Inverse folding.
């Protein structure tokens, strides 16, 4: 039986998520927005019976058993931790500390669903790619080469998308989905990273005066995954990721995996492959055309991935009679909160590398940092 | 009046260069090969009246006023320095020290032509790209993004292409042409670089037993060019270059320059552009089809560039009556030996970075290193 859904967020993702949920047969009972007005407006548009700006009103709503959280990263942890006790699908948090708190909270509810809504894993092209990698299509994986080019990620008006510390920028917004995807595809995790972030456009028509964009619009990073882990020189997989959001009017989303006997390339939502010795690429998975809602701000791979994830959620809950239970199978490939912590740790290591200019180790937090220690560090920094 | 030509080398470049020279009206009088046999064989094939394996026989040949040197990098410096006194077109040397010696030697003959045969600068797509950059098509240049993918660069049998120290590998062979091209296009030079080199395929069907490939088949590097030069964080142009030669059956040669108001992309020999605000790319320069000789080992951009360079050489020499004089105009865009030294310096900085894992500064040699000092260092290294 499908659970009733409560949705947090009134942004472009919520706007497309709700119709997708409804199309799969979920009833969306409640919508939360940061202001009463935003919530009211979108609830009316999407025919959601209840709206509010107080999070408890959704979390305590008796018909809500699945909570979907698609809000600015800096608010995610607070809502997600409170929401646990119900099944939760949520977007990435703003920091590794936030992610760690979410992991800790989720451990209290092992029987509940708690997944990060990184939807690229669910995109059919990547599902097929992973399967082919497992079957040995490319042989031993050597290099992953990813590029995402597109128009600016900034909102029309000044907000969290402009602020690096609020979780804005290409690395945090798009790079994190790629980091997650690559670990999912290769079955390995980054142990060292090197990166470079830039903000080429610091002001524009709507962000000016004393305000400046601090989030990156160009980001390049490398990840060394698996292998001996003993250095930059040997073994393992080398990933290079280029993100450039200074290219209005274009959208490139290309994930290439090169191995010892062939390669696979996902371009947009299509998958191509070439085995060594063969002449030319073969189309392995075409795109039959998108029939769902159109969303200006959301690239097609994310949109289709989101759609596939909602379908998987439906299958997962349908398998059981009781409306809070779910089957693991259909959502087994979804990223867990632990995966979310890993991704956030890599993001922060790349940012550190961009400052230090050096390769940085990826060390997953195992204990919450002492807040007093952080305070000391902050004071120390201010002194310098 | 066109000068008589002597050619050094019997490899794939010489094999295509000689017919190109002949087609432009140059007479090729002499051919040098490492063995009498190789020289004899190719001379016959290309109708060259004289062949030899002794360099002086070409350099002292009375009809030879232009010497073209396309031989393994480790031998280039020795021949090039001896050849000066005539006009010289030659391939890159193996090391920065070699390049420095060539620069020093060339300074004695300022009236003679001495250029590095990096032919990408002459490719019509890049000539047009440079012109459009100067005219402001992309606005302020932010990012250069280059990728070259193709099959293995190794020769059939064991030789210099397998040896990093002999000038083999993707970085040295292909990367150096890209480094030169990017400085030519942007009018700036790299001041800091970061790189990662890998040899994924260390042995193959013909290189086995105790022999191992030491030259890179995957190379990624970043260059920070122009700008304040004060760090990795601000100003200037950021270049990322990905070279992967583990992709048999494919050839990708893409140079993209992204600026504040648009972008230009050369794919193979064609040039595309898109200004911000326009919908879709425009084809700026197509490829009318290649009618010259086919060469298996030489990618089309290099082949067409070589052809354009030979045409420029013809125009340069035709402008004067005396067969040793030449006009600067047609070959003004050719890389000088100084440019060759810059390129070699960047190549070595990238290699250093791959070992150290750190950003390395690009410092052009101004004095020949003391050989005794080098000896001391080598001894020191052996001790460790």
């Amino acid at each position: 039986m499908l659970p009733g859904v409560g949705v947090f967020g009134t942004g472009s993702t919520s706007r497309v998520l709700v119709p997708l949920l409804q199309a799969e047969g979920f009833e969306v009972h409640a919508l939360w927005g940061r202001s009463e007005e935003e919530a009211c407006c979108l609830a009316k548009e999407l025919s959601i019976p209840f709206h509010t700006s107080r999070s408890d009103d959704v979390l305590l709503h008796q018909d809500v058993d699945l909570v979907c959280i698609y809000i600015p990263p800096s608010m995610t942890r607070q809502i997600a931790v409170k929401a646990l006790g119900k099944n939760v699908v949520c977007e990435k948090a703003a920091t590794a500390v936030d992610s760690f708190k979410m992991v800790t909270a989720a451990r209290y509810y092992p029987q509940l669903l708690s997944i990060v809504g990184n939807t690229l894993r669910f995109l059919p092209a990547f599902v097929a790619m992973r399967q082919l990698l497992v079957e040995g299509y490319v042989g031993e994986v050597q290099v992953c080469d990813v590029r995402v080019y597109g128009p600016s990620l900034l909102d029309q008006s000044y907000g969290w998308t402009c602020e690096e510390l609020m979780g804005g920028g290409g690395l945090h917004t798009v790079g994190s989905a790629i980091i997650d995807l690559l670990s999912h595809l290769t079955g390995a995790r980054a142990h060292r990273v090197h990166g470079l972030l830039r903000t080429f456009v610091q002001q524009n028509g709507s962000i000016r005066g004393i305000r400046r964009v601090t989030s990156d619009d160009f980001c390049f990073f490398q990840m060394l995954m698996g292998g001996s882990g003993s250095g930059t020189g040997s073994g393992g997989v080398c990933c290079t990721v280029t993100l450039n959001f200074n290219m209005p009017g274009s959208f490139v989303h290309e994930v290439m995996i090169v191995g010892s006997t062939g390669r696979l390339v996902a371009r947009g939502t299509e998958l191509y492959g070439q085995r060594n010795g063969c002449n030319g690429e073969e189309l392995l998975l075409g795109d039959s055309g998108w029939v769902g809602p159109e969303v200006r701000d959301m690239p097609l791979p994310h949109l289709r991935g989101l759609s596939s994830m909602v379908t998987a959620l439906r299958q997962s809950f349908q398998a059981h009679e009781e409306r809070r239970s779910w089957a693991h199978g259909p959502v087994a490939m979804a990223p867990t909160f632990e995966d979310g912590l890993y991704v956030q740790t890599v993001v922060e290591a790349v940012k550190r590398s961009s400052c230090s200019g050096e390769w940085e180790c990826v060390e997953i937090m195992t204990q919450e940092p002492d807040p007093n220690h952080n305070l000391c560090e902050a004071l120390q920094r201010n002194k310098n």
User: Anything to note?
Assistant: Chain A touches chain B through 39 residues (CB under 8 Å). The longest helix of chain A spans residues 337-356. Chain A has a mean pLDDT of 90.
